[in-house]
Structures are given as structure tokens and as C-alpha cells.
Amino acid sequence: MEREQRPAAERFLGSETASAVAETEVDDADVLELLEPVVQEWWVEQFGEFVPENGGYFTPPQKEAIPLIHDDENVLVCSPTGSGKTLASFCSIIDELFRRELAADDPEDGLDNSVYCLYISPLKSLANDIHRNLAIPLDEITDKLDERDEDVDIRHAIRHGDTDDSERQAMLERTPHILNTTPETLAILLNSPKFREKLRTVEYVIVDEIHSLAENKRGTHLSVSLERLEALANDSPTRIGCSATVEPLDTVAEFLVGRTFSGEVSEKGTGGESREYSIVDTRFVRNFDIELHCPTDDLINTPAGVVNDRFYRELDDLIAEYTTTLVFTNTRSGAERVLHNLRERFGYDERNSACHHGSLSKEKRQDVERALKAGELDVVTTSTSLELGIDMPDLDLVVQVGSPKSVAALLQRVGRAGHQLGETVTGRVIALDRDELVECAVMLKRAEEGFVDRVFVPEGPQDVATQHVYGMAINGPRPESEIREILTRSYPYRSYGDEQWEQLCRYLTADYPGLEGKNVYAKVWRDTNDPPDGEHHYEEFPVGEPLVGKRGRLARVIYMTNIGTIPDSFTCDVITRSDEWVGQLDESYLDTLDPGDVFVLGGDRFEYRYRRGSKVYVDPTSSRPTVPSWFSERLPRSYDLGREILDFQRALLDHLDAGGKSEARVWLRSFPLDEHSVRALVQMFDQQVRYAGPDSVSTDSRLVIEEELDHSEYERRYYVHSEYGRRFNDGFSRLLAYRIAQEANANVTVAVADNGFTLSLPLNRKVDLVGLVEDIDPDDVRADLRASLDGTDLLQRYFRINATRSLMILKRYKGYEKSASEQQVSSEMLLGFASDLDDFAVIEETYREILEDKLHVEGIESVLSDLQSGNLELASYRVDSPSPRAFGLATLMASDVVLAEDESAVLQEFHERVLAEINEQ
Fold this sequence. Notes:
Radius of gyration: 30 Å
Structural class: alpha/beta
Helix content: 40-55%
Number of helices: 33
Shape: globular
Distance between the termini: 92 Å
Number of strands: 28
């Protein structure tokens, strides 16, 4: 069929309109010309009205990404929510599929009955939402072709864990050309004997919200799946990654595209280079209106009831001013509490307000999502469950209560508002805590400046490698070199050398005496291809070729029903040793507890003694709490944000020194802060300097240790002002507590927060903490931290998680499903035995994950190296009462803090002591 080839603007808008468009400096007509005429027509009808705002037919990410994908280039598209990056990813793909169908003279010559594009989402709800959005352009373009008697059928479907058997079977008969799925389902499809053949034609892979995958094992799992797909597909698929906020872009792009193969696998990995890629960086094309608010300039002396009342009145005013408001809190209980108070105080009800978080039923969450999309709700409160996913066209305000703990999370959450390019993204952050006031001030300023926290990719996890090598062996037998090559082309395994590979193979082949006696059996065999009369002879491979194959008749069933990386969790019953049930704790809370720690449950205090399976045994006590009840629920501050806070504190000290409080206030007014926030910050740091001196504040060139002698409690406390976030502080505090216990032979109580940690000893025990820190060799950190974990619940929990991921413990077997608490019992029986095995993969991965991913050992090594090199000085001082910057740390250790009002009273007492000391100077 001969097609008209006039310029696109003239074809679809008419010559007069096209001339008017030209006057608005349309600079992307060449992008439109890349598309099939019918796709052009649909695009102009849909988006022509936005020409003035976009400077053309396409938003910035679309303008840059569509030509790259059209040319089959791998690309990472980084752009704010609502800027059209998902449609940018799909546009060229849809266009190419329509082009092939239209070019075929015979329907038999068009698209095969197989998959051409995979869209991979971290969330089922996001996959569902994209599926609906994809249906609109496909259906409308198809309708246009139907009107012209051109029969084109581009099929799309969604498949994940909730897809029923009949739908799965239908996909084999009538296969979608575009398949929306999740990382876990892709791994299953690669081992599905029938459906994996449908994946050989895949030419495009879209990974959405890639930032939420790259930093965890779900992303590692997906990365290996993409390399398995690469080996399976007829041609190398074009990879497209989408993210709103991520850094560093090159690292995430390399994670997306994987590595080439250098021709051999060495003791240090493949040695290959990253595949080629392009980056579309249009992260800051939207207009942001974000500001930090605080209900008062004195968060210590203003009564809590007054602070709360002001907060809720401001929140109600904001909701009334905007069409739809989304309120983020940092905990699920916080989201419920905010909604409850709004309804109690201001008359909101089920018709105009709702709550959305992961503990609610799937049906309830879907009802809220539908109402949000329809614009039926005035306000929705949530924790993290709406950070990603559905479009909310009427959402025009995001309120963040407290700190979201990273610039990336702030931009992700606030970016949910103003879901069209050209609209201003409006966000308000409300701080109700002095430490969070500092954190939020820095966060908002750095967000305005374009700063984003880095993503840290897990390095070579053995549990994920176990699943994929097992899966490849099930599809085998295959040459060992081929399996290893596929694994090491994945970015997280780029440095995976001989030692790690042999460690993995020893585990997979159960090459340890007594292992099978613990019901841990070999999953693969590993052998050279035998001569024709041998047990392991395969004609397709040369004799002598090292091969790997599956062991066991149920291997495929075990793999299909047990793979994945999201750990099961459970609640533990808390029982006194006199056998009285007192309540329940989330299992993750136990990560923070050591024997002797005291926590609050139901208003009473209990000393943690030990755990057996899902039961936690405690003793009632009157001692002070050592671990706050919210600890496990809140996200940790990002390490990079912590470093930015240290830089901010140095600058603020400089302004105070140069011109006093007035100059500091003038400087802070250049930040997106309200006046209460400005005055509260200056007051806090001014009092800190007057009380303990300017060297009492940690900066980018100084680490501070504050020592307090508490004679009333007979305790010596060290407040370490390390602002690097809770992951770093958890690891650093464990390291120091371990060293102190060795040196002073004393019990050390630890309390950890994002802005530092507290070490508490009996008053008659004294250590030279400064000298101890200075003497730590960075090269010894990993070994010492590893030793400090021995016998902890943290080690037990992560061993269970990794043993389950490594298929050492099977969640599902022969129709029986083992609960998380049952998995824990099994793992406790295995841990001692496994710990005694030489270089055992599951144990080694458990320590690697805790040290690197949870305790940020690299950050600790870096700080200690800076101390040794002189790039960071160590300062210390002694006080009779905690300094203002230590108030938050001190309340964690205060003996009479159980409820919020108790904390307020203790803070007031600390503050009065500081003011009395300042006034006497």
C-alpha cells in the first residue's frame, strides 16, 4: 500500500494548524517521522494539545528515548514521575510491531505466536496499571486500522503469581506479543519447558522502577534472568530501564545491560566490558515546589498537644486547598494514626479519605487505588506502598510527615503529585523532631540542587547464584563454562571468580561429609562428559567436556515452587520465663536485640533473654529501655545523605562563627524552609556551640565522641556523633562494643539512631574510646564484625533467610508449605552444623549480606581509613549532661522514657541543664 509522505504535522493537523505549531518552535518533528503513519496520527490526536508545554509533540524523555529505542540501542531513561517515560519506552516497540504486521502481505508473514517485548515491574499493582495504560494505545490504534480495513492484532497480557492456570494455558495457545510480568515470574518462565520457547523471539525488555530493584537481591535475581534470556533469545534483546530517581546513572545502566564475555572466566571473573548503552537524563525537567514546615520554633518546650494540634490544623488546611492529597508517614501505624485523627478532628469519612499500606487486604488496596485514579478521595494516608505504581491524575499535593530518609525517596514520593509535565510538583515536609529537622533541611536543599543518593548493588550473592545455576542445570545438562559465563555476565557477578564458583559448586553438589544426614541433598551433578558407555554421556557434547546437570526427579518442581528472594517473615510470641504470654513482636525487631536489652511492650518493660523458633523469652524489669519500639519499622537514613548533613553542619558553624545567629538565619533562608524551621535550627546549633564549643559538632572533617558521667544511674556513656545513618551506626557500634568488651571486660549497652549511637558502661569501667577507634586497622573491620555476630539473633535470622533462598530449607515440598517460623526452627537446627563446615556458601553469604548490605562495612572501612590518613580528625569532650545534638541519643538511654510524654519531659530536663550551664558561662 502506498502511503502519503507529507510532514506529520501537516498530515494530521492541517496546513494552517501545522503553521501555528511551527511558530511554537516544534523541535521534534524528526522523532514523529520515525513512527508509522497510523501511530503518528494517534499520537498527535492524543498529545497535540500539549505542544506549547513540551516544545513539540514529545516530552523530554520521549524526545530523547524514542529514537534510541528505534535504533535498538540499550537505554536507561531517568525522568520524574508523570513525564511520560513509560510511554517513551513502549512507543518505538508498539510502532515496530505495527510496522511488521502492516508490512506483511500475508497474515502468516507477520508476527509469530510468541513474545516480542517483556515489561518487568517490581510490583504486581504497577504491572496491572501499565497493562491498562498499554491497552489504550493498542486498542485505539487498532481501531483506526479497522476503519481502514487493515486487520492487525497486537496482543498483550499480564502474568505473575496471581495468574490462574486457565489464563496461563491460554497464553500458550494465543501468546501475547507484549507480556507484563515480575522478576520472579520471569525466572519461572525461563524454566517452563513450553513457555520458554515463546521467549526466543523477545527483542525488547523494559525494566520499570529499576532503582527499586538494583539495590537488592530481587534485582540481582532479575539481572541473571536477563542474561539467561540473552542466551536463549534468537537475537540480543534491546534493554530499556526506567526510573524517576537514581544515582549513579552509569552504575545502574551497567546493571541493566550486563557484560560482554572476554572469552574466558578467570579467578577474578569474566573480565568482560559493559555492553553499550545510552542514558536519557531528564530527571529535573519538572518544576518543584517543596518546603519544610515545623509547627513551632521550639520543639522541646512547646507542649506535645499544641504541636499535634498545629500539625493537624495545617494538614487539614492543605487538604482543603488542593484537589487530592497523599500523606506519607514512615510507618504503617503512623498512616493509620494520621487518618484516624483527621477523621476524629475534622469529620473526614470513608467517602473522602482512606489509608493504603501493605498490611491491608489486596481488595482494600485495590479499592483505594481505583478511587484515587477516579479522583474520588480528598486525602489518602500511606507508608511506602504508593511510592511506586499507579497514576493518580488528580493528585496535586504530597505531604511527608517526618523524614523519608533519602533524597531519592523524597523525590519519588513528592513526584507522585502533579502527574503531567508542565504541572508543578508540590510537596510539604513536616518535621516533628529536632534531629529530623536537620535531616529534612539538608534533604530538601540537596533535592533542589539535583543531588540523589547512590544505589549500592549487592556483590555476587551466593543464594541467588544457587537458584539460577540450579535452574540452568534443570534445563541441561549444560557445559559448566556456559553456565558460569551466563552468571558472570550479570553485573552483580562481574567479579565472581574461581573461589566463589568452587564454593558454590561444593554446596550444590553437597560435597561436605554429613550434609545429606541433615536432609540437605545435592542439587546438581558436576562431571566431565563420559565416553559413550558412561553414566554421564551426552552426544551433543564432546567427550571430556565438563558438564553440570540436575539431581533428583523433583528438581523442576522444587525450583518452580521455591525460587524468589523476598523473605517470609512472622511475628514472635513474647513469653516470660515464668510462662506468661505478654504480646507479640515483629521478627525484624529482634535484629536489634541482644540478651540483656530492654524494650517496651504494652507499656511494660521486659529484658530480652533468648529466642527459640517463634517464641521470645523475657523477664519483667524496671531497667531503662535500650531499643526503641519503632526501631525495626523505620527506614534508615542513606549513607550519602549523612555525609551531606556533615557538610551542612560545617557550613552552619562557619556562618555562626562569622556573624552569629542573624547571619546563620539569613543563610538558612536560602533553603526551602519556613521561619519556624530556620529559627529552630539556628537555636539548636547556637546552644550546642555555647554549651560544648564548636568542636563538639561532627562535620565532614571531624568525628565527635561525647562522654557523659551519670552518677545517679552509675553509668558512663559515650555519644558518638556519626551522622552516616543507622546501617553504618549499627555496624560501627557493634564493632566498638566488641572491642570494648575485649578490653574492659564489661557489659556494653548499645543504642543506635541515624545521627549516631550510644555506648553505655558501668561508671567504674573506663576505656580510652578515642585511642581504641584510632587503633582499629580498617583491614581488621570485617573479621571483627564477623566475630561480633557470633550467637546473635541477627545471624540466626539471616541464616534462615539465606538457607531458604539457597534451597537448603524448602518452603514448599510435596504439597506441604513450611511457615517462616517453621523455617526458623529448621535453620536453628542447621546453623551450628553449617558453621563448622569449611567455606560453606550459605554461611558465607549470610555474613556477606549482614556486613555489606545491612551494616555497611565499606562505609565503616572508609571512615576509619580517613581517620588514619588524617582526612578526618577525632575530637572528644566530657559533659555533665548531654549536649543539644545528643538529646535524641540520650533519650534512647533515659531510664524513664516509655511513652512520648516521658520523652518530652526528659528532653525538657536536658534542655534546662544546658541553658543553666550556658547562662553561668
